[in-house]
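notes to self, project folder thing:

trying the whole complex as one job this time. last attempt i did each chain seperately and stitching them together was a nightmare. two parts in total, labels are on each line so i dont mix them up again. if this works i'll redo the older ones the same way
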Amino acid sequence: MQLVLEKRAERSNTIALISPLIAIGLTIVTMTILFAILGKNPLLALQAYFIAPLTDGYSLQEIAVKATPLVMIAIGLSLCYLANAWNIGAEGQFLIGAVAGSWIAVKTQGTDAGVWVLPAMLVLAAAAGALYALIPAICKVKFGASEILTSLMLVYVADLLLDYLVRGPWRDPNGFNFPTTAEFDPVATVPLLIEGGRLHLGSIIALLVVAAAAVLLGRTIKGFEIRVVGAAPRAARFGGFNSNQLILLTFAISGALAGLAGIIEVAGPVGHLQPGISPGYGFTAIIVAFLGRLNPIGILIAGLFLALTFIGGEQAQIAMKIPLDVTKVFQGILLFYVLACDSLILYRFKLVFPNRQVARGAG
Amino acid sequence: MQAYQRMLDPTPNGLHSGESPLLQTAGLTKRYGNFLANDSIDIDIWPKEIHALLGENGAGKSTLVKAIYGLIQPSAGEIRWHGDRIVLSGPSEARSRGIGMVFQHFSLFDNLTVAENVALGLDGKESFKDMSARLEQVSKTYGLPLDPRREVWQLSVGERQRIEIVRALMQDPKFLILDEPTAVLTPQEADQLFIVLERLKAEGRAILYISHKLEEVKRLCDTATILRGGKKIQTCNPRLETAASLARMMVGGEIKEVKAAAGRQTTIPRLVVNDLSLPPDEAHGVRLEHISFELKGGEILGIAGVAGNGQDELFAALSGERLSKDPGTVVIEGIAAGHLSITKRRKLGAAFVPEERLGHGTAPRMKLSENALLTGHAASGMVNHGFIDTAATLKTVDKATETFDVRKAKRDPEAASLSGGNLQKFIVGREILRNPAVLVVSQPTWGVDAGAAAVIRQALLDLATAGAAVLVTSQDLDELAEIADRIAVMFHGHLSEPLATRDATREKLGLLMGGSSLEPKEAAHAVGA
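result (full assembly):
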């Protein structure tokens, strides 16, 4: 008896929908074993991870706050990945967006600048993220450089630039030498949706981005071009679609969304520019994009789920002294299972019994 | 009565009574999921026999020979060699027993020499020098001239096939499988191959010859086994059959005749190519050399030639997948279009059907409606202000389905789920429904079943009758003879002067396909100039 993978005649839409659920199920099973090995009660740990954050209002708001950058970045990444352009550097584009937007906030600090400050910050951040993402895209189109490597390497450049600025020229003079800018003025801050709460305007922007992406991919010829270039490059050329142009476009959109997410994070929940503004949103968003099947609605759900793991991880650390790094292990295992389960969309498992005659011949 | 006797006697020449066949399959069955690729096939192959395996695409020929060559394991049934049951673990075991195979698609490394390629395919332990010597010996003995030191990319398709045949012969096989060997040969090259095969037969070897060229089978083969839908239909003596009766057995019914409308009128030139030259865009590609022709409305021009002589490059240059610096090299509907993109050329009224259905003509994992949009977005009202009109794309699918009898499981399935013939009908239909002024089509019926091929050829004829200019590239000379008004031949990136189809004999085309000139005067003139 043998277990083989057999190709399906047509991709299975059912499996495409349930494969992320299978992956989550397998991840939870694996995590249960991992918790047991760590000597923690797996049931309590899972409760802390997945149930506890859903039971109080503060945590629910915090989940939405964490999901906002994840969803925005993942939407952009999904466009790249659909077009077969591998932007791994969203973390860098996020940081550059945060830095560029903060520049306006820092320069207008304490002046009587009006309500134009926040919109200008958002626009500049998006533009900076797009330009930063275009560096690997242009290197790819012009010189054939691997965008995977160049975009990833630019993450560290952005990280160090931010570090330099907050320790050097932009450091808050009254900040006791901490590497941070001063708190942004109210006109440079993303407004809250609920007074005294955590939920801010960024979440609304993220929802608008999801809706726009759904329309782009599902209804427009540009979205179709993006999908064909990734799915069948030669057919796309035959269709008259320019793959280089689409690589530039998807990288630019993706960079702009990451940059926007960056400034929203800084001008929103954080309130000032400092190192460590991202717990790896740009990388986690890669998982969100794939867990959400590169589909805008899927990404929204996946973004909320991964935000839950961030919050749950913190709760588990507080309540059960489970290291925060376990959250990253969880996310890694999840991506692994998502990609593995995806093969079931095009293939199915089958048990094969060798024919009797061969068995007799062998015996 | 005759037919009845033939069915009773599986060895029509009746010579083998008392001996056991060289190779036998008994109840050989191969199952893929619910699909029976081979359904209990019995076949006997005797020494000194050239045995044809006939059938349409998807009839199960490839599956059967793969099982015999050890590439796949049968699900049931057995293979007997000299009367004894064998289980082959893989091709190397098949080879060591004396079963050789020459594939339709060559497995050669372009950048290696002939001898290096042969060495890679042999299992033996002899030194490279001894092997090279033996290679020259074998190629000389069988009249398959090869220079072991040349690199493969410099060789013609016919020469490449020789490498594969010599490689198989160097293992001294008792039984040789050839998969559509003449598909890539000129008529003259095919004749030379037949002499070699006759000789192998005289030496006592057996040959299993896969083909769908019926005249060829009647000429060469002693026995023919016909497969249809995975089942063996009959074993017969092809020399006692007619091509039509063999075709009926393959298809399981009559094939519709393709009819050209009488007295088609030609109109203005709709596609003109002026001195088109293009360097290759990839290593070992073909350079297009000064190609010129004129194609009027109402006319079908056929381009014959062995694959790899620049047909793909010409298609890319005509479609606009590759652009020319000089706009005047390609003129569509009187407008210089050499520098225009494929989308702009479509807007001028041109339509294109590439050779490769999956991955080039269609995105395999996308729905038919999306694949209608792939070429229809330019000029078919499927896009309004950047938004897709889904209803319009579905309408194209429905219309193509109805007009060209596309058979599919649901209204809008993925392209990859259609059979080759049905997908090709959809692709040709998708373009014809746009009412093109110029249609450039490459290998319109490659790997398509006879019924679908007839539908497609008829559609091309009807399109020309309606006034379009149609350019058909094909390696199938019978197809070109059936539909083309004129036939030109591509060789090494050059295009010959077109011949009127009634003057284009197989001999003349064969000479042109092999690079010879029809008029020696012209060559002399060229030298003098």
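what i see at first glance: Residues 67-293 of chain A form one domain.
need to look closer tmrw
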